[in-house]
Amino acid sequence: MCNYCGCREIRTVGRFMSEHEDLVNFTGDLYRARESGDPAAVARALEQLDGLLHPHTHAEERGLFTVLRRNPEFTDHVDGLCAEHTGLEAMAQEIRNGDFDVVDEFIDALREHMDKEDNGLFPAAAIELEGPDWEEVVALTQSADTSPLERAGEAREP
C-alpha cells in the first residue's frame, strides 16, 4: 500500500486504501479456508470478503471513478479497472459454485488490482483533482454506500 505521496490523507482515498488493507486480511481467511478443504469455511470466508468487496468497488465506481472518467486521460484506465471489478466478481462466482482452484487466481488478481489503484490511480487522482472535484467524489461516494469498514468489522467478530 502506498504511504509515500500523501494521497492517503485525502478522506476518500484513505478510506479506499484502508478497505484494501482489510481485503488483504480477508483474502488470508479465504486462502486458509480453501486449504482446510472445508466448503462451508470457504463459503463463509468468501461471504465475508464479498461483504466488503462489493460495496467497496461500487463506491469507487460511483464516486472517484465517475469524476476521473470525465478526463479523457483517465477514461481508458478507469474503464480497465471497472472491467477488473467485473472479472473479480466472475471469479468469486466460480468459487461460490465450488471451483476452489480459482482461489489463488482470485487472490492474485485482487492484490494486483489494488496495487494499480494504491500506487497508480490514487496518487494520480491526488494530483489531478481539485477541491470541488473532491467534494463531488465525497458526495457521490457517500451516496453509493455507507462505509463497509463497519460491516466488515462486525462480520469478523466471533
Question: What key phrases describe this protein's structure?
Answer:
Hemerythrin-like; Hemerythrin; 83% helix; Four Helix Bundle (Hemerythrin (Met), subunit A); single chain; disordered C terminus; 158 residues; mainly alpha
The parts where pLDDT drops under 50 for at least 5 residues are 147-158
Which architecture per CATH? Answer: Up-down Bundle
Mean pLDDT: 88
This entry's quaternary arrangement is: single chain
> What overall geometry do the principal axes of the alpha carbons give?
elongated
| Structural class based on helices, strands and sheet pairing | mainly alpha
The overall strand count is 0
Give an account of the 3D structure.
This protein has six helices and no strands. With 158 residues, it is mainly alpha-helical. Helix 2 (39-69) packs antiparallel against helix 3 and helix 2 (39-69) runs antiparallel to helix 6.
